[in-house]
Write a structure and sequence with these properties.
212 residues, alpha+beta, 2 domains, 5-stranded antiparallel β-sheet, 4-stranded antiparallel β-sheet, 7 helices, 9 strands, elongated, zinc ion binding, zinc-finger, metal-binding
């Protein structure tokens, strides 16, 4: 399961103009917004999520498609948002998961800025040993990746000097392999861009730089 969290007001200040979440419930002062992603084959929020968040005393404010705000790798998921007062004891647990012991937390307490700056994922998600063979080859090959524009458009320059445009939102590439075969899992350029984003080596699809 993947979750994200951040100050409700700071999130709205950062990208409220592009999302309608706050039309349902306006930004709440001194509250943390907690996002939980789940498979889109669930017609309703899974019971386990409902029970856990209820036990924490959080209240649900929104649910919908996760294919927004840089969540390009969650296209086949939905998400649900909860609020709780900042300073909730569970935040210390989250900080420890992300940054080690609570005393090592950054000065902002991990509760300001963009929620996408602190996604909590499986620790093994970025292990190169676990990569699919074709992705391993794409990662090892000499390529230069750069963000072309916000919205998930990247340029990949291969060792041969050829340049291709990759769209991580549409999962497409202008290379001949993609245009002719559309290989399952994406061409090597799409795989390489995906890997570079997840490793924090290039800006995210929303144009923001990765966290230090």
């Amino acid at each position: 399961m993947t979750v994200g969290y951040g100050s409700d007001e700071a999130m709205c200040d950062s990208w409220g103009s592009s999302e309608d979440w706050w039309e349902t419930v306006p930004p709440q002062e001194a509250c943390t917004r907690f996002r939980v992603f789940f498979p889109d084959d669930h017609q309703t929020v899974p019971r386990d999520i409902v029970d856990v968040m209820a036990a924490l005393g959080a209240w649900r404010v929104w649910t919908g498609s996760a294919a927004a705000c840089g969540s390009y790798d969650h296209r086949e998921r939905r998400e649900v948002h909860y609020l709780w007062p900042e300073g909730h004891p569970v935040e210390e647990v989250l900080h420890e998961r992300l940054s080690g012991p609570a005393e090592a937390v950054a000065p902002d307490g991990g509760r300001t800025g963009d929620v996408r700056d602190r996604l909590v994922v499986d620790e093994n998600a970025e292990s190169q040993d676990d990569l699919e063979p074709r992705t391993k080859r794409a990662v090892a090959e000499a390529m230069d990746v750069s963000l072309l524009s916000k919205g998930g458009r990247y340029e990949v320059q291969s060792a041969s000097g050829n340049r291709y445009e990759v769209d991580v939102i549409d999962e497409s590439c202008t290379c001949p392999d993609w245009q002719q075969r559309s290989p399952e899992g994406g061409c090597k350029h799409l795989r390489r861009v995906d890997h570079e984003i997840k490793r924090g080596r290039v800006p995210r699809p929303d144009g923001r730089l990765p966290s230090p």
